[in-house]
Amino acid sequence: MNRNGSRIVIDMSWFLNSLRHCFIPLWRFVGSVLGSKSKDVVLSIEYYCCDRPNPLLQIIYLVIISFTYYFVAKSSFPYIPGYYLSEIHWYLSLEAVAIGILLFLLTSFSDPGTITADNVTHYLSAYPYDNIIFSEKECSTCKIPKPARSKHCSICKRCVARFDHHCGWMNNCIGERNTRYFMAFLLWHFLLCLYGTVAIALILAGRLKELKVVYILTVYYGIEKTLWDLAPHVVQWLLGSYNTQILLMVFLAIISMLLFGFFGYHAKLCLSNTTTNETFKWQDYMELQRKVKEAKASAAALRQSISGLSNERKPSVSKWRSFFRRSPLEDVVVVKNNVYDKGFIHNIHEVVSPLSTRTSFTQSKFKSS
After folding, report:
1. Of 196, 208, 294, 303, which is least packed with CB atoms within 10 Å of its CB?
2. What is the number of structural domains in the chain?
3. Which one from 167, 173, 193, 270 is the annotated catalytic residue?
4. For the ranges 39-43, 68-72, 130-134, 252-256, which has the lowest average pLDDT?
5. Which residue windows are coiled coil (predicted)?
6. Is 167 assigned a catalytic role?
7. Residue 337 sits in which domain range?
8. What is the reported pLDDT for 105?
């Protein structure tokens, strides 16, 4: 993964941590004003929101999608059928929202790939250690061997295979078994928001046609029939007559762009068979290796300089040549060797058909039992 993608994840993590640290001054202020019992209330709220599973963001998602659909239906459905849209979009939009909610529920309540004492042996064989960012160790909480690519979620209190991240919106971990549902959720909601944006735009364009706004502006008001002259008047008319629809269209367009970026980032991870958790591990490893190689390069350059000073017969180097000489630190290259990346076709197949859902996995489990 490139540095820009990693920087996005780091910035998001930094923002969430900063948001969480906002509780500290609030906790101190409430304690000084209302007493120690009120501090316990603030700590309980912080624990409920950040340190344990809770349906808060799930409820917010359902409220957002329900109210958005309600306002779209109330403001835009009276103009369907119209000049560009037929009445089938009444039912098509409802079905699209229902599928989105279904994917949300599927991602929220599906097993992300919980590792237990019964199946840990099979996950150990399915995901071998690369001895780079994953090495053999035991989970200090679950007291079972920790397979490669797994992580113990401190919020869900369980080890998850091929752990990606804990998603507050889903109130669930995203791991080996439900990454496919999570990706489908992101892609579908991007298409859903894009569909809503285009549909409202076509409704507004249809109203322009049906009411002959351009004709009236050019014939009765004498405005030149050019885009440069007509655009301000058309926009002014739309804002005055259909401000709710325009507000909804802008809102859906912004959300669709955010979802597209988030889906693109996770799609790139899936294509390289990498998780968000592994991204941080690779960053730490690459940074450590870069520092080690830079230290070795600096030591070698120092030895070379010392030997050059001791050799009196060595011809002097031009000042200009020494000024433009390439630094040994610029030649330091750290290569990322991801043994789990086996080609994008195999990587996609691993996401769509997780290893623990295949017949070979269940058969090996049956034989061992």
Report:
1. 303
2. 2
3. 167
4. 39-43
5. 285-312
6. yes
7. 114-162+275-297+325-368
8. 97
